[in-house]
Amino acid sequence: MMTIFDFEKPINELESAIAELRQLAAEKGLDRSREIAELEAQRERLLRQIFAHLRPWDKVLLARHPKRPYALDYIRLMCESFLELHGDRLGFDDPAIVAGLAKLGNYKLVVVGQQKGRDLKERQKRNFAMAKPEGYRKAMRLFRLAEKFRLPVLTLVDTPAADPGVESESRGISEAIAQSMLTMFDLTVPTIAVIIGEGGSGGAIALAAANRVLMLEHAIYSVIPPEGCAAILYRDPNKAPQAADALKLTAEDALERGLIDLVIPEPLGAAHRDPQTTALSVRSAVLQQLDELSAIEPGALREQRYQRFRTMGVFETAR
Amino acid sequence: MQRRAVVQANSDQWVQCAKCKKILFRPDFERSLQVCVHCGHHHRLRARERILLTVDPNSFHETDSELRPADPLGFPDYADKLRKGAAASGESEAIITGIALLGGYEVVIGAMDFGFMGGSMGAVVGEKVTRCFERGAERRLPVILFCASGGARMQEGLISLMQMAKTTAAVGRLQRAGMPYIAVFTDPTMAGVLASFASLADIILAEPGALVGFAGQRVAAQASVGKPPANFQTAEFQHEHGMIDLIVPRKQIRPTLCSLLEMLVPTSEEAHAR
Predict the structure, then answer these.
(1) Tell me, what's the ipTM?
(2) Fewest beta carbons less than 10 Å away: which of A129, A279, B203, B258?
């Protein structure tokens, strides 16, 4: 079943009315274009109205929207070519992380992303984009490949969290996350991370220790899921919307605090209403960052990345 | 859970083991470094106690003690939690850092305090840990960190998550300087701390029975097929799975650290030869 969120309901109703009218017009050969245009204008007004007042919790729902474009959608829509590579060379290949070689404009890149599934079967196969240690180890393998062949790295971050299960614990999920960050910090090629959906705590930062960190307008980036925060803060996971307010997890919040570098605007009504346009926006933002970063010396790239994170943190100094 | 640090004082002379509940004579208990003589349970130590019973007498010089937490998000109840944390631990943040001698070796040393907001890592903990590694790299000193933390500090939001990256990058600095970094996992070492600087040490020691893991036990069980093993997320479990070099009883930690320093710290001739 399709999930329709409360704030999307009136839009969806209008959209089905428009579709019905179109079908009717086509079947009966009648000219209903004026009515259709009117409904479309109404839809546009409504979208503007709704999207002008999104609360953080609405953004959480949008970031998790089942129709939101996923990593492979972006790769397909924005890259000229993509060759997926597999395996951590330690015994596993994690479908929650996709990685490979891509062409983007004049650039050859290594691309690594967390991949959600569209239907139940794929969701299970991708483990809801919750990567296991082998996923991060595959990513590290590709990072090292990028370093060796002097290819810039693009990561597409979209995960609720790293996999918390017994299996992942047994294989060192914490160590894998830490090593993934460390490997990214060691690189002397340009690295760009784009938070495309859910930037879920350690699972996300493991792929986001980059020279530039960009976020889509309706993506979220948080140290803890709002449900988990609500359970601790209010002893009630149903108070997740309040927790989402407190956590300051929107792209705007992150930009304001200097924790990300750029917010990539989404089309009216969010990425899932127009994946093509969204992907093109991501493409041009990434290309611009690549142009800028390519002008920097390899050693300076590593230092820039160090300083980028070094300055993060707000504290006071007692006398 | 039996891991509660609180040793119930029945009087000045007697304390109760938090695990086996046996009554212990306080001078004995202190002599055994707060390890129960009956069941071997390692009670949680204050960060300052930990440092003082590890380093050479009178050699500890605290650094960066002037750093204080802010409340950058205006997070609900955070200011109150900070006050309570300070009152409970007697410290201004969840970690103490400094320079000390250990078996005659000059080291950068830090110890986290679970009593201060569960040893959680916000901007101050991240900054102090980062400065430890930078100081180690700059002054060519080994770094020793005693970890005790529930993870990243929720109340500072994304800033806390960024401390994972910041501290990790700083480990890289120390690595390039060729100086050893030894971590000691004490009860508990979890989540954002385990998934950043803690797991990146050259050598990892742990105290017996310490809770060491990524996610909370309930979350882990929910995400798994079948029941987690009985020792799931203990130091022993992580040791079995290759994530910890040695499980070391508290009394043996200082001598173990001294032998490791002897093996790993380059002598001046060795440093020269590089």
Answers:
(1) 0.95
(2) B258
